[in-house]
Design goal:
Strand order of the largest sheet: 4-10-9-8-6
Number of domains: 1
Largest sheet: 5 strands, mixed
Number of strands: 10
CATH class: Alpha Beta
Radius of gyration: 16 Å
Order of helices and strands: EHEEHHEHEEEEEEHH
Oligomer: single chain
Low-confidence stretches: none
Length: 236
Amino acid sequence: MRALFIQHDPASKPGLVGTALAERGFEIELLSIGRSVHDGSYDGPFPKAREFDLLVPLGAIWSVYDHRAVGTWIDRELDLLREADRDGVPVLGICFGGQALAAAHGGEVKAAAAPEIGFTTVTTDAPELVPGGPWMQWHHDVFTVPSGGTEVAHNDVGPQAFRLRRNLGLQFHPEVDAAIVASWLEMGGEEAHADLRAATGADLDTLLGVAERERPRCERDVATLVDGFLDQVAES
């Protein structure tokens, strides 16, 4: 089985989700798009959805609607997500990927009232599919649930998960571990550090400490999420 992770920038990695899928027999493949966190351009091809058994569009430093940053490829990615839906290829969208999944099927993506950064819990209607966390968050935008979709989890910021046929869109980052958090801060530079301080009052060392403490529980929650996605959504 082949799982394609769409890597929108070098700081986005399969992480714990990739590990969980590999443990369940998936071959992990990457489509790398953005050249750096400062250059999101991509003129290369997108594959056919039916070449894979699962698509996982990951997060990104940009916004779905920022065509100056993502205009060379975002429309083609949305076409790919719609193609996957038509062909019955399951999609697990993470953060930017969840927003793209919502947008591909008629949902709206817009700026949030305030950034959501750090580990937060969500209110879930299906803990056997989307546990309540805490999950790592780092986003400035929110999505609306597309017509025909069902909200699975939310918090005060907005929807945190929705399902639509064989698609599951997430606003949070289940894939994240301490190493990924550190790479986000390193690649994002002082702007990322300033966002972290403004949103949480914490510094990198504090956030990394939380990530290390949360890892065993995150691994358990990711296992629940991945199994729930494969059994309840991908096979629906």
